[in-house]
Amino acid sequence: TQTQTCAACAEKLSTYFQATISADWDQATTIYAEISEIENKADDLKKQIRLSLPRSLFLPVPRSHLLEVLHVQDKIANSAQDVAGRVLGRQLQIPSSVQPDFLDFLQSSVETVKLAHTTMGELNDLITSGFSQQRVETIEKILDELHSAEHANDLKQVELRQSLFAIEKELDPVDTMFQYNIIDLIAGMADQAQTVGNRMMYLIAS
Fold it and tell me: Are 112 and 193 in contact (CB under 8 A)?
């Protein structure tokens, strides 16, 4: 599904950054190609879904809300590809002293995306059940977890930025600018996952 494909893009970043930290740029190039292939697949799936959604008034949820969810999910895949591409283009490495915090922050963002994927996985069951109270409560619980995960990711981003700022004068200025940019993009994936959750709340309420 498109949801699985977008989540897969984000998950690939974990092994990608392990390769960049090891300065294994051949492996990083291979993984970047895999991320790009998955992102292209996500684009194709989004187009297929958009074309196949009925335009009648008998959809169980508003068509515009479903299309918005597809659009936001696609942004997650795009962000993952942007992150990998920018790092590869400069053979950019995360400073060794902040690598543990960076990998923790990255994993936190990926886990947030995976929670959004789990939420979307419940959507079909929700519709099939006729929006049963039990299914609604299940999704609401996952959405609470998603909100908490995104907030935790925000806190990790602040800590990581502080760690990077503390050694900023020792680093190449242009590399440092790109490092902050990479942090922004990774945080953006968690934000987009939260937006998927917000759209799910609209679907439940509609």
Answer: yes
